[in-house]
Amino acid sequence: MVDVPPGRVTLSDRRTQRSWPVDVAAFRMSAFPVTQALYAQVTGERPSTTRDDRLPVEGVSWWDAVRFCNALSRREGLTPAYQLSVQDDEAVAWDASADGYRLPTEAEWEHACRAGTTGPRYGPLDEVAWYRGNSGERIHPVGGRRPNAWGLYDMLGNAWDWCWDFYDAEVYGAYRVLRGGGWSDAHWSCRASVRRRSHPTFRIDDVGFRLARRPVPRE
Question: Going by C-beta distance under 8 Å and a sequence separation of 6 or more, which residues neighbour residue 143?
């Protein structure tokens, strides 16, 4: 896990031409997307289309990601961040006081991706991301491209990341936010500001996730 400092990020939506600033508190984010190896260790499942322990896990829904976060938290003796309803399997509440693993918010994700930069990417695309122009039409092991200034790998390209947030509940209902671009996407999708959406039950072969946590208290 990498310590991400506090800051402010301005989110934008291409469809509505709207932008809005968000203050981001300090948090921790995994240096790499969740791999197939870790996902299998925690869940006993290997849902991905292409199998390799060092590849990002993909073919996982938003709900799969949420349940994984809780399972990993329990395995490590942490308080799960998500409270799932027994009566309604589509109801979830986030306990922000919990020290367990969770999905980053959309603002946290973009703030972490930019790592203090202001351009569309934190480095030259071919150096930092696997995308349509250099991926050979396949997903790649995590950490194969240059990280950003804060030591986070694969923030752009390779596999999209699920985020906690609803995309636009009034228009798209339960659809959640995806960020980062994937191995089959054109260069314009692999930018820090690009937003995509998907239903939380959908499993897609270029969508995975990475982990976030509260910062560790300093003694």
Answer: 31, 32, 153, 154
